[in-house]
Each structure stands twice: as C-alpha cells, then as structure tokens.
C-alpha cells in the first residue's frame, strides 16, 4: 500500500475522533488533543493532517505495524511473558528510531529527524526510566534535531537532562557524545570558549575510547578547528585540518587497497566502507577543508592534493565515478605543482582505475 493511502486529512481516508471524547487521545508529535487516527495501525493519533504527514515521513511509516502489538493490550500481552515481549519490541524500536534519526541528522534533515528522535526518547523512558544513563543517546538526538531547527533553548534543556543522566556513566563513549553535542550548542550560541572546552573534552574521551588515531577523535579536531576559524586563528585551523586530513587519507587508502584486492579476488566478499549517512558527514568535512585551502591566499598545494585525493577515494568507493574523477583531477593538478610529490603516483593510479571502469 502506498504512503499516500495513509495520509490523514485526505478524502474518505480521514478518521475523526470527534465522537470519542470520553477517552481523549493525544497527538503523537505535539501531545495536543488528537482529532485524527492512523487508518492503518489505529493506535496512533494526531492533532491534524500536518503532524500525521510529518510523523509518517519521519518514522511512522517504518514502525506503524509494530506499534499495534505494543499499544493494543490483550489478555496474553498483560501476562508476564507478554509484558517481557512488549519490552523487547520497544528495545528494538529504540534502535530503529535511533538509526533513522542519526541518518536524517547527518543529511541535515533536522525537521524529519524530530519524530524519530521523539519516539526514541519516549520508548527509552518506558524501558529504562527518565533518569537512566540509557537515556543519554535519546536526549542527544532530540537536542541535535532541535539545534538544527534553531530551537536552542529546548536543546539546552535536553542537554542539561543528558548531563545529569551521564553522571552515572563511566563509559567514555557516552561522555564523548555529550561533549560533542554541548560543543555544537555553544558554537551555535556564540560561546566559543565554552565550545572549545567541550570539544577538547570530546577529543579526550574519544581518544580514550577509540584511540588517538581514530576518525572519531579527529572529528573533534575538525570541530575545534572550525571554532578557531571563527576566532580568526588561521594557523591553528590549518594545523588541525592537516591532522584530520592525514587520518582520513590513511583510512581511505586502506579501504581502497582492500577494494582493489577484492576486485582481483572475486571469491572474497566485498565490504562497503561507510553507509550513506557516514559518507555525507565525511564528504561535508573534507569539502570544508578543501574550500578553506582553495580560498586561502597562500593556497597550500600539498594540502589541496591530500584532501582532494581523500574525496576522490571516498566517492570512488561509494560508486560515484563522476565525483571521484572531478576530485581526482583536482588532486593531480595540485600534486604536480610540487616536484616529486609522493601523492602524484597514487592519484594517477586512482584516475587510471576510474578510466578503466568507465
């Protein structure tokens, strides 16, 4: 059945709750009084067609049928085994909503991410309780969605709740994600000193969890560099961007080598290097660094070659030969400005792979 069949507020597909005032229902998105009901699961309600459509696009299309068993109590489901089964389904829903929200946030679709983040938080409260440390990821997702929509006050409230919950955790990954989100908030509000403090903590906890050379740790370096750019500290920006580019070049070169080996040995299983959401994030980071160098009056050719080669490898591995070719040519032109540059040969090899594949 197509999605349009489930959009409430169209023709005969509207189900009004006006006659059911005895037990008023609340809107899935805003918690206001509901007037419409999802015609498929019949256990989800909305104040109007606009919120129904937003929820459908955001998350409801993926979880509509699952909600029936969770929200429709039966004699069996009220028994102990049934209650356990319902809790397990809620745990699964938390993960589904988390991944959907993360994907949409990475693509900059903050409005669309909001329903998934909200449902993730409600399910997390049901399963873990509002003050549990397991609430931190849900608070952070919802805070990030609100930041992207400009709701900074609401984001600050959510991050305050996340900070209290995180006090109970000794996990470095939890604190790393919290400080990264706090850094984003302070950057958005213009409190750059606080942003630098939180990104420094982000880097510390990331290095403890993932290692100094990890791309997660260097993600913190990139964000710190962006703050220094706002402060006009360009030598620091250039130094941090160089460290980030080196790490990504090493990572992507390894992926490329593995890809070539898999092509040469068809019996080996080909592994993908990053999903769509991760590629969008990495692409945005690398493009920012490339534009910084290209727009700088000094134009560091070595850095341009390094970053452009990263982008070429990224899109080659993603199967977009047109983008890979464009960045590859940019990398080659920059490397040829430096006598005996050590990246010239690898860049030429990648371009040869691209031309052979066309």
UniProtKB/TrEMBL annotation:
Claim: Zinc is one of the keywords in the record: yes
GO molecular-function term, one example from the UniProt record: zinc ion binding
Residue ranges occupied by any MYND-type domain in the UniProt entry: 27-64
Keywords, alphabetical: Metal-binding, Zinc, Zinc-finger
Keyword Metal-binding: yes
PANTHER family in alphabetical order: ZINC FINGER MYND DOMAIN-CONTAINING PROTEIN 12
Name of the molecule in the record: MYND-type domain-containing protein
Protein source organism: Eleginops maclovinus
């Amino acid at each position: 059945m197509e999605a349009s069949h489930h959009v409430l507020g169209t023709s005969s597909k509207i189900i009004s709750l006006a006659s059911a005032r005895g037990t008023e229902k609340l809107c899935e998105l805003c918690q206001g009084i509901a007037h419409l009901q999802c015609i498929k699961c019949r256990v989800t309600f909305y104040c109007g067609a606009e919120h129904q459509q937003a929820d459908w696009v955001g998350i409801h299309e993926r979880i509509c049928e699952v909600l029936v068993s969770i929200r429709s109590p039966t004699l069996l489901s009220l028994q102990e085994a049934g209650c356990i089964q319902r809790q397990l389904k809620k745990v699964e829903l938390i993960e589904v909503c988390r991944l959907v929200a993360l994907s949409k946030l990475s693509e900059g679709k903050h409005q669309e991410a909001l329903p998934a983040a909200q449902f993730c938080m409600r399910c997390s409260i049901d399963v873990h309780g509002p003050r549990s440390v397991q609430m931190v990821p849900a608070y952070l997702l919802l805070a990030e969605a609100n930041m992207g929509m400009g709701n900074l006050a609401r984001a600050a409230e959510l991050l305050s709740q996340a900070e209290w919950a995180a006090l109970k955790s000794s996990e470095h990954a939890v604190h790393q994600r919290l400080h990264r989100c706090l850094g984003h908030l302070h950057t958005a509000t213009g409190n750059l000193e606080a942003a630098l403090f939180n990104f420094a903590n982000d880097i510390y906890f990331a290095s403890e969890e993932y290692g100094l050379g990890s791309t997660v740790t260097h993600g913190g370096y990139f964000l710190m560099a962006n703050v220094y750019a706002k402060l006009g500290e360009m030598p620091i920006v250039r130094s941090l961007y160089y460290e980030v580019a080196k790490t990504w070049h090493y990572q992507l070169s390894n992926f490329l080598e593995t890809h070539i080996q898999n092509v040469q040995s068809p019996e080996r299983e080909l592994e993908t290097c990053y999903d769509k959401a991760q590629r969008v994030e990495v692409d945005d980071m690398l493009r920012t660094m490339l534009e910084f160098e290209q727009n700088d009056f000094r134009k560091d050719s070595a850095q341009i070659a390094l970053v452009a080669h990263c982008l070429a490898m990224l899109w080659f591995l993603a199967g977009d030969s047109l983008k890979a070719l464009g960045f590859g040519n940019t990398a080659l032109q920059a490397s040829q400005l430096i006598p005996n540059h050590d990246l010239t040969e690898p860049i030429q090899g990648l371009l040869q792979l691209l031309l052979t594949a066309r």
